[in-house]
Write a structure and sequence with these properties.
This protein is α+β, with helices and mostly antiparallel strands. The chain folds into two domains: 3-78, Glutaredoxin, CATH 3.40.30.10; 90-195, Glutathione S-transferase Yfyf (Class Pi), Chain A, domain 2. The protein has helices at residues 12-23, 38-47, 68-78, 90-116, 127-147, 161-176, 184-195, 197-208, 217-230; strands at residues 3-7, 29-32, 55-58, 63-66. It has a four-stranded mixed β-sheet, covered by helices on one side. The radius of gyration is 17 Å and the shape is globular. The two termini are 32 Å apart.
């Protein structure tokens, strides 16, 4: 296979790249990276000195592509399929790119702040930062609640890179600030995302890689059980 994805299936940003690959049945070789393994971490660093995943290696085109949104763009350009992840209409394309950034910056990054605070050394927690992140999450939910009303997907009837970004953002954000608290349109949108085959497959793989150190471990397991029961 020409494509190799260096990633971890539980990583939210890695999930964006995986969904894009599965959405168009793009063949690739998965390369799971455990940053706690010195050899694997060194392998990733040789590809990308910042030692961040996901990283997509395309041997056929001799390209190494980094950052989740850029990987999705690259796949849409060079490995297109039935799902047009970047709309052909320039205005919709701009909207999809904006919403990809919106979900990353204002939901996923805020959720990450709350999660990583659990791993800070004793006495080094940032309670002010966590509360600020939660406030930003609530504001972002309000924006999504208004924008998604009357739409199937983030920019209308077409599933795009914006929806790919929305899934991990809302999945993890919901643990921090529940969507059910006054955001019924957003909660319904999230349920639609969960039923998307490419997302369901990615979610299953992420659950298999679930780390017991994850602070919302019990909630995660309960959600996965609910999803399995609902089919």
């Amino acid at each position: 296979m020409t494509l190799t994805l260096y990633y971890h299936p539980f990583s939210s940003y890695c999930q964006k790249a995986v969904i894009a690959l599965y959405e168009n049945d793009t063949p690739f070789t998965p390369r799971h990276i455990n940053l706690g393994d010195e050899a694997q971490a060194a392998e990733l660093k040789r590809l990308w000195p910042m030692r961040k995943f996901p990283v997509l290696r395309d041997d056929a085109r001799n390209q190494t592509v980094v950052e989740s949104s850029i990987i999705v763009e690259y796949l849409a350009q060079h490995y297109p399929g039935q799902s047009q992840l970047i709309p052909s209409d320039p205005d919709l394309a701009r909207e999809a790119r904006f919403k990809d950034r919106f979900f990353d910056f204002y939901i996923m990054d805020q959720a990450s702040k709350a999660v990583t605070d659990h791993f800070r050394p004793a006495g080094k927690n940032d309670s002010f930062g966590v509360e600020s992140a939660k406030a930003t999450l609530r504001t972002a939910y309000d924006v999504v609640e208004k924008e998604i009303a009357g739409k199937t997907w983030a920019v209308g009837d077409q599933f795009t890179m914006a929806d790919i970004a929305a899934f991990p953002a809302l999945f993890y954000g919901d643990f921090i600030v529940p969507l059910a608290d006054g955001h019924k349109n957003t909660a319904a949108y999230f349920e639609r995302l969960l039923k998307r085959p490419s997302i369901a497959r990615t979610l299953k793989e992420g659950a298999q890689a679930l780390m017991q150190g994850f602070p919302y471990y019990d909630q995660y397991r309960a959600r996965m059980a609910r999803i399995a029961t609902s089919g």
